[in-house]
């Protein structure tokens, strides 16, 4: 059994259910099938990584769950209701941060509560709480252009958390960061996950990142995107990337991912695809 937070009540339906989902796009050469026959249940409080090479449709699947795109066939449901548009129960963090450059750290984090009509006192309480949670209290009056990449991503995470979301969707959020910053933010994200008991769906093409973070790793194959396997990560936390149990899981995941790559492409066990 994986080291999940186990917040799902026994017999409770999954918080997210993907059933028979297909997604296709029009192109100059005809209709392209991007996702085919996706079936996936995610329980409350789980940390799930969608892992696959570029072009396998993992970000498209995340955007369908977020409500930014619609399925061509099948359904994506959240809390038992079909997803047709974005909602306050889901927040998404992108690799490029998507911060408002004209707003300070504090104003970016306070944006959602303020526009939800909360009182100034409540807005300040929420913004202060999540600014402190991501360790940016000393930078509340800074603008995004004055921040490092890691700090910008902390603001992006805090802004989502301030909206009182239930599901945190993350599209390769640490992909543009250096290795040390990436490792630090992975630790901080896991700490936030433990504190908030959020459900997290995290898109990555890094095998090591998936094994560090996830309760479950959903490996996707490309052309069109399908769920190749769904495996639990049975490792205690915190995880030691130099340990043999960690590296055994990493090799297993990497081998499964490599089997889905085009001929001639190889995947190192510790590297991204």
Helix content: 25-40%
Taking all Cα atoms into account, the compactness measure Rg is 19 Å
Oligomer: single chain
What is the percentage of strand-forming residues? 15-25%
Strand order, sheet with most strands: 6-7-8-3-9-10
SSE order = EEEHEEEHHHEHEHEEH
How would you portray this structure in words?
There is one protein chain. This protein is 32% helix and 25% strand. The chain is α/β, with parallel strands linked by helices and 273 residues long. Strands 6-7-8-3-9-10 form a 6-stranded mixed beta sheet, with helices on both faces. Strands 2-1-4-5 form a 4-stranded antiparallel beta sheet. The longest helix is centred in the last third of the chain and has 18 residues. The chain is globular. The N terminus and C terminus are likely disordered.
Give the tags.
single chain; 273 residues; alpha/beta; 6-stranded mixed β-sheet; 4-stranded antiparallel β-sheet; disordered N terminus; disordered C terminus
Give the arrangement of secondary structure elements.
Layout (H helix, E strand, L loop, with lengths): L15 E12 L2 E13 L4 E5 L6 H9 L6 E6 L2 E2 L7 E5 L10 H11 L4 H14 L15 H13 L5 E5 L7 H18 L2 E6 L2 H7 L2 E6 L4 E7 L11 H15 L15
Parallel strand pairs: 3-8, 3-9, 6-7, 7-8
Antiparallel strand pairs: 1-2, 1-4, 4-5, 9-10
Helix pairs in contact: 2-3, 2-4, 3-4, 6-7
Provide a compact summary of the structure:
The chain has 273 residues and is α/β, with parallel strands linked by helices. It is built from 7 helices and 10 strands. Helices cover 32% and strands 25% of the residues.
């Amino acid at each position: 059994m994986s080291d999940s937070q186990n917040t799902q009540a026994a017999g409770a339906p999954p918080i997210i259910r993907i059933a028979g989902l297909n997604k296709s796009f029009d192109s100059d050469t005809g209709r392209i099938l991007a996702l085919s026959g996706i079936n996936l249940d995610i329980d409350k409080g789980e940390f799930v990584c969608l892992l696959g090479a570029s072009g396998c449709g993992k970000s498209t699947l995340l955007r369908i769950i977020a409500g930014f795109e619609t399925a061509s066939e099948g359904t994506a449901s959240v809390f038992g209701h079909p997803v047709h548009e974005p909602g306050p129960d889901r927040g998404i963090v992108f690799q490029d941060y998507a911060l408002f450059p004209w707003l300070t750290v504090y104003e970016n984090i306070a944006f959602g509560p303020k526009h939800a009509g909360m009182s100034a006192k409540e807005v300040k309480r929420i913004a202060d709480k999540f600014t402190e949670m991501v360790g940016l209290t000393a930078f509340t009056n800074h603008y995004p252009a004055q921040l490092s990449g890691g700090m910008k991503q902390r603001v992006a995470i805090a802004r989502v958390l301030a909206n009182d979301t239930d599901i945190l969707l993350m599209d390769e959020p640490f992909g543009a960061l250096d290795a040390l910053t990436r490792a630090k933010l992975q630790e901080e994200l896991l700490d936030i996950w433990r504190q908030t008991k959020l459900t997290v769906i995290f898109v990555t093409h890094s095998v090591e990142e998936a094994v560090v973070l996830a309760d479950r790793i959903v490996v996707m194959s490309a052309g069109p995107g399908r769920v190749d396997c769904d495996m639990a990560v049975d490792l205690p936390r915190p995880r030691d990337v130099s340990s043999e149990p960690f590296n055994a899981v990493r090799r297993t995941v990497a081998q499964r991912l490599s089997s889905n790559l085009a001929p001639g492409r190889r995947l190192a066990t510790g590297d991204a695809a």
